[in-house]
Amino acid sequence: MPWLQRKRCSTNGALKLKQQPCKKWERSMSRSDYDGIILGAGHNALILQAYLCRSGLKVLAVDRAALCGGGLMSIENPRIPGVLHNIHSFYHRAITAMPWYRDLGLEQLGARYIEPERNVVMRLADGRSLEWWTDLDRTAASFEQFSKRDALALRRWAEDFRPIVDEILVPEAQSPPKEPEERRRFLNSSANGRRLLEVQALSPLEFVCREFENDAIRAGLLFFNGLREVDLRLRGFGHAIPALLASPHKAQMCAGGSERLADALVRDIRNHSGEVLLNAEIKRIIVRSGQAEGLELASGEVIRASGFIASGLNPQQTFLQYLNQSEVSPDVREKAVGFEYNLIAPLMAVHLTLREPPNYSLIEPDGGQLPFMVILGLEKLEQFHEMVAAHEQGNIPPAIMWGTCPTLFDSTQAPAGLHTAFMWQKTPYALHGNPNSWEAAKAELGKRMLDVWSAAAPNLVDAIVDEFILTPVDTESILPNMTRGDLLVGSFARGQIGYNRPFAGAGQYRTPIKKLYLCGGSTHPGGNITGLCGYNAARVIAAELGLKIWWNPPQI
Ligand SMILES: Cc1cc2nc3c(=O)[nH]c(=O)nc-3n(C[C@H](O)[C@H](O)[C@H](O)COP(=O)(O)OP(=O)(O)OC[C@H]3O[C@@H](n4cnc5c(N)ncnc54)[C@H](O)[C@@H]3O)c2cc1C
After folding, report:
1. Is-above-0.85 flag for pTM?
2. Domains, the chain
């Protein structure tokens, strides 16, 4: 689709942006200096900015894009006015339980969330479906159709892990990470902590195979982890699945499109005198006497900040692209060069505008509850190994897809009589060893996805009004911080977690350069729409600037 292949920050009308009000909030042209400047205006950057603006600081966020929010993007289809596509994040987990959602009053500012009860439906070829509901009893009833033992295991883990989630994992994610030895000592001091250490030591694959017997259930549980998050073979992540089972919150969607969340954040920032500068190419971070003190833009404009510079970009952009290399020690340079991206994170997407919603055969209406996320093509555990092998070889993995018809849950995302729907599939960034292969291959691969999709929803093909495809290469070109299409902005392997995310010496949101901080998805707790990287960075920066912490972060 030429309108999406264009550089997305074009303002020539080729890509009509829904959030036009954002432009009004751009920085005025006065050259006043700031207390703080943030590189990027993704949701983590905006959350950091909102907290510090509420602390009384004058903070500017600078982004190359034409609109705020990064991965919170809803674009209007230029061929069909009023049709919105959420081209990046759509499933926002537990947003309404996030401390920043509450502290910043984002619901009152227009970010309203919907959490459909029939949250995930995995449709199997034999006519059965494995379902995750917001109600544990209903999920257990679905598991029971596959294995009574697994339904019991589900209940046991959901119950056992609940205090671990509430008392340890949630506060940990909402706090700057502890040094690994200190964390171990802290966990060893309680029964729940010791239980967490024991389960965490496993890989997700080991956990699932140890605790669940049914192949489809194993595959479905790993879908939440292996397909979308960490490499399922990675030890140290065995707790991820029981944590998901025990979490009271499932996938949510933002009413009016994902970008409403960014819109609400910018509203709060503007209400507290913050500013966002869009369409601005950054040239470099200015460092003097070992201390960050401003930004130079490609236009030649220099903007200074007396208190801090924070980067919402990835560590390679921050340390290798935007800092003069004489300011970066060889050790940090080496670590930044070695920063790794998730091999299996990149996505290919097919987005449709439809006359009617997909009507899936084999998925029965259940008391009027429509399936929210639909998973197709996932049947058994073995497919994960095939998928990882395909990524390693640069090939297209087996067609496992997942997606939603957003307009079934929020009719504001398309005019009456029209619907939107999308499907995602994991695909390698370097297709056949070279990302340039995507250009020639994407139409054919999109058609293949559509064939699988329409085999499951036979009304689909006749209902299509418009379609477009996005590839991992598009992800990287729209959001360059997602290098190699890694939507989690950095792997969780190689120790790139917790205290050492993105790498040792630049964890805890601080960097070896004075007054330079990190706040994006490449910091703890990592990518996805959690906002916690920005939330935690706000606490660190506020403390270092001697500001009163007006909010109430967890004490752990
Ligand atoms: C296809 C796709 C689907 C996804 N689905 C989900 C989902 O359903 N649920 C979920 O939780 N997450 C999802 N994600 C991941 C999620 O969007 C990201 O992990 C999240 O947006 C990271 O947030 P961030 O604030 O760190 O950075 P981003 O949201 O990436 O924002 C970074 C900002 O920095 C700007 N920037 C980048 N480079 C520069 C530069 N050189 N100069 C100036 N500005 C720059 C960008 O324009 C952007 O505004 C998805 C991502 C993709 C690509």
Report:
1. yes
2. 31-72+91-109+255-341+483-544 (3.50.50.60), 136-247 (no CATH)
